[in-house]
Specification:
By secondary structure, this protein is mainly alpha-helical. It is built from five helices and two strands, in the order H-H-H-H-E-E-H. Strands 1-2 form a two-stranded antiparallel sheet. Helix 1 (5-18) packs antiparallel against helix 4.
Length: 128
């Protein structure tokens, strides 16, 4: 397995950025489309300067970008970076789901054996 320190750094920055509820709210809003700082600041009881700082953290994490459109500087969600986070999470989710399926199968087998003992049949004696 090849470890990529820069990928780890990107993951760390992204998850640290998403640890804040205001930044998660900004991401949620941007999932509906681009928005200006003023539009992003509306639902929060914080200053526009504070929202700008949150956007900078999200930019540094690679989760959002800003463009220039005449006088406007809309903020855009970087869906590819968000998808990379989802893929990283899914990889571990799938591993754990397989482990749970194996445990479920083992427990079901154990219950079948217990039922056989309760009825006086063991696995070797149970007719096919």
């Amino acid at each position: 397995m090849i470890l990529d320190p820069s990928a780890d750094d990107r993951l760390d920055r992204a998850f640290m950025a998403l640890a804040d509820p205001v930044r998660r709210g900004i991401i949620a809003r941007l999932s509906r489309g681009p928005a200006t700082v003023n539009e992003l600041a509306e639902p929060f009881a914080i200053t526009k300067q504070a929202v700008s700082k949150h956007i900078q953290v999200l930019e540094h994490a690679g989760l959002v970008t800003r463009t220039r459109d005449a006088q406007r500087r809309p903020v855009h969600l970087d869906a590819a970076q968000l998808e990379a986070l989802t893929a990283w999470i899914d990889r571990y989710r799938l591993i754990h789901e397989q482990q749970f399926r194996s445990l479920d199968a083992l427990l079901a087998e154990d219950r079948t054996e217990d039922a056989g003992i309760a009825t006086g049949h063991t696995r070797e004696e149970t007719p096919s």
